[in-house]
């Protein structure tokens, strides 16, 4: 993982931050902690670092992926949990957050998403878990030259800054401070997210190249492995998780017979794999009462 450029000392003064300061004790919010997920789309892998900047208090995290300075510029940022947007604004000279989205999750819990290139929500908006709220950027206080990254924080309302900054917890697991690489399970469901991702189901080397919503019951994904030329289709459930319900996934390579996995499953149908380099495929699936059937496509 690359480290972002150090912010200026002036930023540290404005934000009241001191590099090397003692770790503040975690506070206890009035309400239970929401079921926070990673602030990135389902299946993406990001590395978080809480020691990469002179402007850090304990438990703040900077996220990056990729091997170049601008690798994740413009990547989508999504809500870690459902809530109400209370800030969606450029902070100007107030602090070093640049374009900032702050979400109130109720019960005294808030999340912060800073340095965004663009903000996709406005103040007062109701957002669901996994909804896009902006894009990774490098906006900051004038004069601060930083590389693109997402600055993420969890705060509570029961005490003052910086004691109200909490450890980040994703999918029920506390982030492995100071540095950890984490796979996002922010796959929808608003607190009952599917514990599996399409990439985990299909296996190493597969990346999502297309998807289709199956109403509110699930999503069917088409993945491709450039290393072996194989496609993979999997249908991920969003409702009735853990309960066996009718779910299916299929993949049809043009000129060959369709391969289908269909049954009563708790979390997903598939994986259905087939070699399809330079060949068109038809794919789809069903969850609940909704189904999707693609045309022959993705022929390259």
TrEMBL record:
Residues of the signal peptide: 1-26
Protein keywords: Signal
PANTHER family: MUREIN HYDROLASE ACTIVATOR ENVC, PEPTIDASE-RELATED
Matches recorded under InterPro entries: Cell_wall_metabolism_enzyme, Dup_hybrid_motif, M23ase_b-sheet_dom
Any Pfam family the entry gives: Peptidase_M23
Gene Ontology molecular function terms on file: metalloendopeptidase activity
Species name: Microbispora catharanthi
Protein name: Peptidoglycan DD-metalloendopeptidase family protein
Positions of the M23ase beta-sheet core domain: 63-158
């Amino acid at each position: 993982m690359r480290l972002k450029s150090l912010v200026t000392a002036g930023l540290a003064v404005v934000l009241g931050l001191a590099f090397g300061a003692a770790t503040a004790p975690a506070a206890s919010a009035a309400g239970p902690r929401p079921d926070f997920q990673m602030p990135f789309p389902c299946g993406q892998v990001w590395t978080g670092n809480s020691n990469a900047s002179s402007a850090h208090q304990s438990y703040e995290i900077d996220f990056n992926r990729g091997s170049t300075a601008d690798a994740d510029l413009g990547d989508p940022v999504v809500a870690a949990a459902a809530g109400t947007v209370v800030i969606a604004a450029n902070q100007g000279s107030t602090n070093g957050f640049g374009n900032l989205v702050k979400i109130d999750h109720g019960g005294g819990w808030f999340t912060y998403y800073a340095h965004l290139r663009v903000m996709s929500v406005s103040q007062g908006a109701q957002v669901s878990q996994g909804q896009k709220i902006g894009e990774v950027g490098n906006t900051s206080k004038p004069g601060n030259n930083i590389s693109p990254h997402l600055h993420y924080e969890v705060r509570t309302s029961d005490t003052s800054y910086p004691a109200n900054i909490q450890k980040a917890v994703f999918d029920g697991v506390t982030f492995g401070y100071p540095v950890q690489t984490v796979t996002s399970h922010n796959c929808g469901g608003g607190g009952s997210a599917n514990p599996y991702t399409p990439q985990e189901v299909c296996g190493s080397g597969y990346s999502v190249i297309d998807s289709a919503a199956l109403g509110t019951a699930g999503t069917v994904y088409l993945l491709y492995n450039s290393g072996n030329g194989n496609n993979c289709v999997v249908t991920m459930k969003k409702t009735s998780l853990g309960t066996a319900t009718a779910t299916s996934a299929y993949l049809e390579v043009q000129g060959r017979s369709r391969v289908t996995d269909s049954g009563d499953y708790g979390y997903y149908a598939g994986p259905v794999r087939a070699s399809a380099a330079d060949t068109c495929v038809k794919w789809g699936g069903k969850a609940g009462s909704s189904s999707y059937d693609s045309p022959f496509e993705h022929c390259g």
